[in-house]
TrEMBL record:
Claim: ATP-binding is one of the keywords in the record: no
SUPFAM superfamilies for the chain: Homo-oligomeric flavin-containing Cys decarboxylases, HFCD (SSF52507)
Protein source organism: Saccharopolyspora ipomoeae
Known EC number: 2.5.1.129
Biased composition (Polar residues): 192-206
UniProt cross-references to InterPro entries, sorted A to Z: Flavin_trans-like (IPR036551), Flavoprotein (IPR003382), UbiX-like (IPR004507)
Binding site for dimethylallyl phosphate: 158, 174
Region of interest called Disordered, as start-end residue ranges on this chain: 184-206
Gene3D superfamilies named in the record: Flavin prenyltransferase-like
Protein known as: Flavin prenyltransferase UbiX
Domain Flavoprotein: 9-178
Reactions listed under catalytic activity: dimethylallyl phosphate + FMNH2 = prenylated FMNH2 + phosphate
Family: Belongs to the UbiX/PAD1 family.
Length: 206
């Protein structure tokens, strides 16, 4: 962690997995919190952005404080001596998960994730894959054993979302919770709606 007088600094990686909007929304929410963001956008991520959204790579870069090429292994975030407060990969492809789990640092995104783990900083991986076979699950376990938080972007329905946008925002806000960066507009569970309705539900089930 860095001295309190500095704003938080988070590395955001966006891979080619489906769900590039999660990474875009993460950059937007982190900007609202005053967080300095360092973006690594892979070539596959740029293709996914074009396929799934109206966003461009330039739009993503505009939402980041600093952007690094995935090929720039000499970037500041490739070194543990460069202080950051954590890293989020949103979305995280199985290919990237495999590279992180095996410390196969062939690009800057994976190297930055490896640095995050070795420096004992929080690393959150929003893995986008389903269904999962045993190989995927073993990779998830390897990454978790190294210290990563595996957080597939599973939508929450207790918030009664009225749009995909709301679902994406809530999911990303929960990922920021895992980085100890709670967003003030995140919808929080506050218990069942009323004690009477809860009693009625228990009576019906009984």
């Amino acid at each position: 962690m860095r001295p309190d007088e500095f704003p938080p600094r988070i590395v955001v990686g966006i891979t080619g997995a489906s769900g590039a909007i999660y990474g875009i929304r993460a950059l937007e929410l982190l900007a609202q919190l005053g967080v300095e963001t360092h973006l690594v956008l892979t070539r596959a991520a740029r293709a996914t952005l074009a396929q799934e959204t109206s966003w461009t790579a330039a739009d993503a870069r505009e939402r980041a404080s600093v952007t690094h090429s995935e090929h720039d292994l000499g970037a500041a975030i490739a070194s543990g001596s460069f202080p950051v407060d954590g890293m989020l990969v949103a979305p995280c492809s199985v290919k990237t998960l495999s590279a992180i789990a095996n410390s196969f640092d062939d690009n800057l995104l994976v190297r930055a994730a490896d640095v995050t783990l070795k420096e004992r900083r929080p690393l959150v991986l929003m893995l986008r894959e389903t269904p999962l076979h045993p190989g995927h699950i073993r990779l998830m376990a390897q990454a978790a054993e190294a210290g990563a938080v595996l957080m597939p972007p599973v939508p929450a329905f207790y918030t009664q979302p009225s749009s995909i946008d709301e679902m994406v925002t809530h999911t990303v806000a929960r990922a920021l919770d895992a980085l100890s960066l709670p967003h003030p507009h995140a919808t929080r569970w506050s218990g069942e709606r009323s004690s009477s309705s809860a009693t009625e539900q228990r009576s019906v089930r009984a």
